[in-house]
Design brief:
Shape: elongated
Number of domains: 2
Strand order of the largest sheet: 2-1-3-4
Structural class: alpha/beta
Strand content: 5-15%
Distance between the termini: 42 Å
Largest sheet: 4 strands, parallel
CATH topology of the largest domain: Rossmann fold
Number of strands: 8
Helix content: 40-55%
Order of helices and strands: EHEHEHEHHEHEEHHEH
Length: 278
C-alpha cells in the first residue's frame, strides 16, 4: 500500500497491459476528489499459477481486485481464490462478455490485448493518412525517405487516389510528379529505390483523362497537356527516365484502384519482406 494513503488499493488485474481497466478505475476515482486511492496494475496475467500470488498481495493490503480478463476460466479461478481469501472482486468484462456471447451466438476470441492491438492499428492508419496527405504531389521532399512507398508518374496517372487508398490500408506513401522538362528532385535519390514504384499508363488513355479533366475544370490549360502527340512524347520520356533510374513500373491503364494497390503492395512486400512496413 502507498505510504501516503490510508485507503486500500485497487488492483487492476488484466491479461493484457491493463491500460483500459486502469483508465476506467481512474475515471471512477475522479468522482471522489481529494480522496487518494492507490491503483496498482497486475498485467499479463495468463496462467493459473499467477493467481495465488496476486490474491495474497491484495489480501495483505486489504485491497480490491478489478478484473479485466477475457479468459473466462482464468477470471473464474482468480475470483474463486479471492473469495476464499475474503477479497472483493469486481469483474468489468465477464458479465458483458457472457451477455454478448448469448446475444450473438458466438464465442469471444479470449485474446488478451486485442483491443489495444486494434486501437494501435487504427492509430497507425490515421498516421499513415496524415503522412500521405502531407507528402502528396511532391510536397515536403525532406520526408520522402520516411515513406514506405513512393509513387512516381505523370500527371493524371492516378497517383493521388492510389496514395490515399494505400494510406487507408496503413501505408505511409509519398507521390512525386514526373513533369516534362523538370528534373526529379534530388531528395528522391535518398529514398531506398526498392520502395519507389512508377505508374505507367497508355498515352491514348491518358490523353482522354486529361481532356476530361480540362473540361471539368473549365480552365485554359496548354493544349499540349492533352494533345495526344504531346502526351505520347511525355510518356515516352517518362518511361526512359524510369528505366534509367531502375524503378519498378506497374501498368495502371484502366485498372481500379484496388487492383493497383494490390500490385504495389505485392511488389514492395516481395522486395522487402517483413521490413516493408516499418
Amino acid at each position: 500500500m502507498s505510504p501516503d494513503s490510508d485507503n486500500p488499493p485497487v488492483y487492476v488485474v488484466s491479461g493484457g497491459v491493463g491500460a483500459s481497466g486502469r483508465q476506467i478505475v481512474s475515471s471512477v476515482l475522479a468522482q471522489f476528489p481529494g480522496c487518494r486511492v492507490p491503483v496498482e496494475t497486475e498485467a499479463l496475467v495468463r496462467r493459473p499459477d499467477q493467481a495465488r500470488a496476486i490474491v495474497d498481495r491484495v489480501a495483505a493490503t486489504g485491497g480490491v481486485i478489478v478484473l479485466t480478463m477475457v479468459d473466462e476460466e482464468l477470471a473464474k479461478e482468480i475470483a474463486a481464490q479471492a473469495a476464499d481469501a475474503g477479497v472483493v472482486t469486481i469483474d468489468l468484462m465477464g458479465h458483458l462478455l457472457a451477455w454478448l456471447a448469448g446475444a450473438t451466438g458466438r464465442d469471444p476470441a479470449a485474446q488478451p490485448g486485442l483491443y489495444r492491438e486494434l486501437e494501435s492499428e487504427s492509430i497507425g492508419r490515421v498516421a499513415a493518412m496524415d503522412f500521405s496527405m502531407t507528402h502528396d504531389d511532391g510536397k515536403n521532399p525532406g520526408g520522402w525517405a520516411d515513406a514506405e512507398i513512393v509513387l512516381v508518374g505523370v500527371s493524371r496517372a492516378g497517383k493521388t487516389p492510389l496514395t490515399m487508398y494505400l494510406a487507408v490500408l496503413g501505408w505511409r506513401v509519398a507521390n512525386v510528379p514526373l513533369v516534362p522538362g523538370i528534373p526529379l528532385p534530388k531528395e528522391l535519390s535518398r529514398v531506398d529505390r526498392r520502395r519507389i514504384i512508377a505508374l505507367d499508363i497508355d498515352p491514348g488513355r491518358l490523353s482522354i483523362h486529361r481532356t476530361h479533366r480540362q473540361r471539368e475544370l473549365g480552365v485554359g490549360w496548354p493544349m499540349k497537356y492533352s494533345d495526344e502527340d504531346s502526351v505520347w512524347t511525355e510518356v515516352d520520356e517518362a518511361r526512359q527516365e524510369i528505366r534509367r533510374r531502375g524503378y519498378s513500373r506497374i501498368d495502371v491503364t484502366d485498372k481500379p484502384v484496388e487492383t493497383m494497390a494490390d500490385e504495389v503492395i505485392r511488389t514492395i512486400t516481395r522486395r522487402l519482406g517483413s521490413a516493408a512496413h516499418r
